[in-house]
């Protein structure tokens, strides 16, 4: 067990001790089924059931929703969620399935929803009983999010929604969707309004969910079709025409709150050791042309470079919590998604190179090194550098909003 954190307040110190004691006694058993490498690739009810049981258990122990008010389903603590996250990472727990709900929907509903919506939606979101998905991207509106054309027409106290969302992770299990829709065709940004939509209850009654099969063979993505779906105006977040403002809250968390899961997931408990020790182990057991990969100077150099990047990333996460060490309030936050996704991609590429020809063996092959983790991780990593804004978009945002560079044309 590591030393107590000297920066913790008395409340945080007590909570950290609670987290460690509870995790030591309640670490869940290994999954009876193979888990995907992140919650975004959950495909089967068996996978979801195992992960939902884990999230609900952690929620009931106060390790999820720690900082949300008690009246909204939280534990009412102060800056304690990060402590729970640190201790769960240290213990190597499974990830939570309601990744979009926790990372994007919860803060958006909390900051922009009515009290009635907060009380209705947040408890089951935090516990994982109700899974959430995100309805932003469309076939003609990906990085240019403000061009969405899914239209919501107002009819008294109701809205009628028609349109097409795509790349909708977890929609096949979701009870709710956060939805950005156009309500005024004459204005690009001011013509958007934000809703929460009960898509599970509306399946076959205005909502269709169609799976999209990725090159990995996984079906975490979906497209969602809306055909004359009616919802109540009470499900609108903030004012009509303020959808872009609300979406910025969602994107701030999507791009900076650790939504993506690196290839160290996959159900194995690696704690906070990171990816490099796993790759070192792979190198020590991989042989190419009579030479151990761990003795290859190029492989050793690349492992060292990745170790430096991982450690820098970890220290920047700690630095971001210290006001005096941040030169811009959004720089480290916006860097998070960019760096995390690119580190994951480099790790996947390196794993493939270390395994050599054996890197062509996939997860279904019993001879695949480390259960075929790295081919799957490498293929999935390309989605990570595209989702939530491509790496190019992220660099533009950092350049314009943090460095003050001229807007790209």
Strand content: 5-15%
What class do helices, strands and sheet pairing give? alpha+beta
Biggest pleated sheet: 4 strands, mixed
**The CATH topology of the largest domain, please?**
Butyryl-CoA Dehydrogenase, subunit A, domain 3
Number of strands: 10
The CATH homologous superfamily name of the largest domain equals Butyryl-CoA Dehydrogenase, subunit A, domain 3
Can you name the CATH architecture of the largest domain?
Up-down Bundle
Any idea how many domains? 3
Low-confidence stretches: 257-271
The DSSP helix count reads 11
Q: N- to C-terminal separation? A: 52 Å
Mean pLDDT equals 89
**Topology order in helix (H) and strand (E) letters:** HHHHHEEEEEEEEHHEEHHHH
Rg computed from alpha carbons, rounded to a whole number of angstroms: 22 Å
Give the overall silhouette.
globular
Question: What spatial order of strands do you see in the largest sheet?
Answer: 1-4-5-8
How helix-rich are the residues, as a percent range?
Answer: 40-55%
CATH C-level class of the largest domain is: Mainly Alpha
Concise structural overview:
This protein is 40% helix and 13% strand. It is an alpha+beta fold and 409 residues long.
Can you tell me about this structure?
The chain is α+β, with helices and mostly antiparallel strands. The protein has three domains: 10-97, Butyryl-Coa Dehydrogenase, subunit A, domain 1, CATH 1.10.540; 133-242, Beta Barrel (Butyryl-CoA Dehydrogenase, subunit A, domain 2), CATH 2.40.110; 276-402, Butyryl-CoA Dehydrogenase, subunit A, domain 3. The protein is built from eleven helices and ten strands. The chain has helices at residues 10-26, 45-60, 81-91, 99-112, 115-127, 243-254, 276-284, 297-319, 331-355, 373-384, 391-402, and strands spanning 132-135, 151-155, 158-165, 176-182, 192-197, 207-212, 221-232, 236-237, 287-288, 291-292. The strands form three sheets. The chain has a four-stranded mixed beta sheet with strand order 1-4-5-8. Strands 2-3-7-6 form a four-stranded antiparallel beta sheet, with no helix packed on it. A hairpin with an 8-residue loop joins strand 6 (207-212) and strand 7 (221-232).
């Amino acid at each position: 067990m590591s030393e107590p954190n000297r920066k913790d307040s008395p409340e945080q110190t007590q909570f950290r001790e609670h987290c460690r004691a509870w995790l030591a006694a309640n670490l869940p058993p290994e999954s009876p089924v193979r888990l995907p490498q992140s919650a975004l690739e959950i495909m089967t009810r068996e996978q979801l059931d195992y992960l939902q049981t884990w999230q609900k258990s952690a929620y009931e122990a106060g390790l999820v929703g720690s900082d949300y008010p008690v009246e909204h389903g939280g534990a009412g603590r102060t800056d304690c969620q990060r402590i729970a996250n640190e201790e769960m990472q240290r213990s190597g727990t499974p990830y939570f399935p309601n990744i979009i709900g926790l990372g994007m929907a919860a803060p958006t509903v909390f900051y922009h929803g009515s009290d009635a919506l907060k009380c209705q939606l947040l408890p089951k979101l935090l516990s994982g009983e109700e899974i959430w998905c995100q309805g932003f991207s469309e076939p003609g509106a990906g990085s240019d999010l403000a061009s969405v054309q899914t239209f919501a027409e107002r009819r008294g106290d109701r809205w009628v929604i028609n349109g097409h969302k795509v790349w909708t992770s977890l929609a096949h299990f979701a009870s709710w969707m956060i939805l950005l829709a156009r309500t005024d065709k004459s204005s690009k940004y001011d013509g958007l309004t934000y809703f929460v939509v009960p898509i599970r209850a509306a399946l076959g009654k205005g909502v269709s969910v169609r799976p999209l099969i990725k090159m990995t063979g996984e079906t975490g993505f979906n497209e969602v079709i809306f055909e004359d779906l009616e919802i109540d105006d009470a499900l609108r977040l903030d004012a009509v025409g303020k959808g872009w403002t609300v979406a910025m809250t969602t994107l701030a968390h999507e791009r900076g709150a650790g939504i993506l899961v690196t290839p160290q997931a996959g159900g194995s408990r690696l704690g906070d050791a990171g990816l490099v020790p796993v790759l070192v182990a792979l190198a020590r057991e991989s042989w190419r042309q009579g030479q151990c990969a761990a003795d290859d100077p190029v492989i050793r150099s690349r492992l060292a470079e990745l170790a430096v990047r991982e450690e820098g990333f970890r220290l920047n996460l700690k630095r971001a919590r210290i006001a005096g060490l941040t030169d811009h309030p959004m720089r480290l936050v916006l860097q998070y998604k960019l760096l995390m996704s690119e580190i994951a991609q480099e790790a996947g590429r390196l794993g493939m190179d270390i395994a050599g020809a054996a890197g062509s063996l996939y997860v279904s092959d019993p001879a695949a090194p480390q259960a075929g983790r790295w081919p799957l991780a490498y293929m999935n990593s390309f989605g990570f550098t595209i989702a939530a804004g491509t790496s190019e978009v992220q660099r533009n945002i950092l350049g314009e909003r943090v460095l003050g560079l001229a807007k790209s044309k």
